[in-house]
Design goal:
By secondary structure, the chain is an all-beta fold. Helices cover 0% and strands 35% of the residues. It has one domain: Sandwich (Immunoglobulin-like). The strands form two sheets. Strands 1, 3, 4, 5 and 8 form a five-stranded antiparallel sheet that branches. Strands 2, 6, 7 and 9 form a four-stranded antiparallel sheet that branches. A hairpin with a 4-residue loop joins strand 4 and strand 5. The radius of gyration is 17 Å and the shape is elongated. The mean pLDDT is 90. One of its GO terms (biological process) is cell adhesion involved in single-species biofilm formation.
Length: 132
């Protein structure tokens, strides 16, 4: 997600620039038309360990060289926050002729304390997709 100076996080709630990631789904049925409205929707549930201070954020992995005072915030493609162990909500998939689609989300670091300490800022995030 990039390298940032701890001094960029001076106040609780300060954030890094967001980084986009994509979940690709393949082979969805294309019962209706393709490319425009597929009639297919998906909901993504993001799971992982919540931060101890801000339970909406993903907790950083612990370690001797780990950063402290930060969590990871998940955002949808409209920059609306999705709490860890929460859901994106169902949204229509735009399928290509092969039944493939992309779900786009963003991640960013968010400070949970005024004193952020530099270090590794890794975490483990899982996702499940509900499809209808």
């Amino acid at each position: 997600m990039g390298t940032y100076d701890a001094n960029e996080f001076l106040n609780v709630g300060d954030v890094s620039p967001s980084q986009t990631f994509t979940i690709n789904v393949q082979g969805c049925p294309t019962a209706k038309s393709t490319v425009y409205s597929s009639g297919v929707s998906a909901n993504v549930r993001f799971t992982g360990d919540a931060d101890a201070i801000n339970s909406a954020l993903l907790r950083l992995s612990a370690g001797a060289d780990s950063a402290t005072g930060l969590g990871i915030e998940i955002l949808d493609n409209n920059d609306v926050a999705i709490a860890i162990n929460g859901e994106s909500g169902f949204r229509d998939l735009v399928l290509n002729e092969n039944g493939d689609a992309n779900l786009t989300f963003k991640l960013r670091y968010k400070s949970t304390q005024e004193n952020v300490h530099a270090g590794q800022a890794n975490a483990l995030l899982y996702f499940d997709i509900d499809y209808q």
